[in-house]
Write a structure and sequence with these properties.
Blueprint: H1 12-17, E1 22-35, E2 38-44, E3 56-61, E4 71-82, E5 86-89, E6 96-99, E7 102-108
Antiparallel strand pairs: 1-2, 1-4, 2-3, 4-7, 5-6
């Protein structure tokens, strides 16, 4: 028996509300620090289920996003940059691979 195919397209209102490269982060402020006029806030998000770990993200902003242990909801812009490449050797084949790590950044939309 064929099951109905779920509609994978978001509703029109949702499509308009979410901008490309923007994410909604909900969680509890774990720590916050300031350096050169930029505030770095660690937000601990809830675990997806009882058997997985909570995620920890760092959001950069110009202002304080919340006090320690406060529940917050923040829209942030996703960014990233490539770090210095390094050479890795595959243990099974001996092939030399150039690996370029990528770090992702989150900047609060203010």
């Amino acid at each position: 028996m064929n099951a109905p195919v779920a509609n994978l397209q978001p509703a029109a209102a949702t499509r308009q509300a979410v901008q490309p490269m923007h994410v909604l982060i909900k969680g509890r402020v774990q720590t916050s620090r300031s350096h050169n006029g930029t505030r770095y806030t660690h937000i601990l998000t809830p675990a997806e289920d009882a058997y997985s770990r909570p995620q920890l993200v760092e959001v950069r902003s110009k202002r304080q996003l919340g006090m320690k242990d406060e529940e917050v909801s923040v829209t942030a812009k996703l960014g990233g940059y490539a770090r210095k490449p390094f050479i890795s050797v595959d243990k099974e084949t001996g092939e030399r691979l150039s690996i370029t790590p990528v770090d992702m950044t989150l900047d609060a939309v203010e």
